[in-house]
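Suppose a colleague, Dr. K., hands you the sequence of a protein chain of 558 amino acids and asks what its three-dimensional shape might be. Before reaching for any lab equipment, you can write down a predicted structure in token form. Begin with the sequence itself:
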Amino acid sequence: MPLERLAAAPRPVTRALVLRIAALGALTVVLGARAIDSDVYEGGEAREALVAREMLDTGDWILPLWNGSVVPSKPPLFHWLVASSARLTGGQVTVRTLRAPSVVLGGVVVVVVFLAGLAWGGAEVGTFAALVLVTTPQFLTEASDGRVDMTLTAAVTGAQVAVVQALGVRRGARLVLALCLAFAMLAKGPIGPGLVGLTALAFAARERQLRPVLGLVRPLPVLLFVVVAGGWYALAYAHRGMDFVAKQILSENGEALLGSRRFPYRSPLYYVAPLVLGGFPWTLVVPWAAARAWGGERPRRYAVVWAATVFIFFSIAPLKRAAYLLPLRPALALVVGWWLAEVAREAEPATRLSGAARTLAHAVTAGALLAAASAIAVGHGLVSTASIRDVALRYEIDVDAYARTIAARQLEIVALALAAALAGAHAARALGRARWRRATFATAAAVAGVALLALGVFVPARAAQKSIRPFALAVRARLQPTDRLSLFTGEEEIPFIFYVGRRVRLASGRPVELAPGYYVLDQERWGAWGRRPGWEEVLRSAHVFSRHRRDLVLVRRR
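The predicted structure, expressed as tokens, is then:
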């Protein structure tokens, strides 16, 4: 029996449809950009920023060596976007230009999910699926992250949607598929096209029809993929030779898939908690939505296979990181959004599921009210932080900094918390009356309120207490451009290099062997050196509340 064709004809573009698309895209950008100015304190973000900076400084847009010596570990699509956004806004790579591509691409993914839901199930399906995605916690977190994950997700999402369209014999879908696969290859290497290929093959096995999937491979799309993606790989090899192969092919992809001593062992069940918590509250209905989708229309079946393939693949792979689940979020949003649209149309009566959801909505309301009351109490000095300061320090939490943030932004916190509480109460009431459509919008509003609160207030505060930025800026102000600066630490402090705004030599050896100049090292090591003739301490960083970063000191050897 041949695969059924997509029954839905192309839908006319109306003004209401355009406004809905614009509203969903704008909502994504507003929520995603909420934490865009937070300090960069992780090495991953700083590393990508340094690659883009080298592109601008050296004019090498193929494969520049960041910090003048290190081969990038990722292909350049994300770096091209960062460098381009920096060039358009003054030529400097800042935290905004670093994260802006992820924010914008997050909006693109939401719009693609809406258009897919619109084409496959109607406007209600598209709207609900997009709302689910834009209020998925992990999706919002990664939308404000200056790394390649959202770029990869945008390319993979476009490719997966194009596969469904191509199986439905949509004209031009194969070329779109080839282009999206090429972008995925340029975003993170073979893993991007590999995820799409594995999903298509798994879907063919589920449908017991391999020929239509194999029929997607045609000469012209293959040529387009080879020219776009293969062109850069050929240039990169010509540019860096075996250094490129060793870093991006063997180390970045080979070791990640086959295993390495560099990666700590993590259970195959590692992703269960991030899957549930990163998609909360929508993941609570995934079992019911997936069960209905498995026997539903072809796009729904494909979305289930898409999500399952990504989850299983990364669960088996030795290298595990919660962000790797991001490419399955659009698939789950389509599955859940389609289910919500159906139960809303069917006006299903209250069940145990709706009762549990109602309880959760009440819990969100109570939690939001408690947050508002706590902000008022802290802002007026009614709560002392002294009793929990010692406990917080053991977990590397600067409770006094959080208290100052709450006091300074008390009005904003209370307003957002009350808005989330009101939305949660409305969701609980709608669920009690089996009004699923209202409940969906109210739940999305509650999650959006919590996201505005967390991303706009607490994420920046958390980043500030872990950031080395104040110390790096002080070092930059203290030194002249001609002064010799070297980094002498046990672990490379990439965020320091980003904020100091210059290339930094990497030092090694004993103190007596080091040449005159300025050196940055961790304070513990400097203390172990003791007082040595010809050495002096210049600047000392404040305590960094992080288990992964050490407190630093700038010293000088005359």
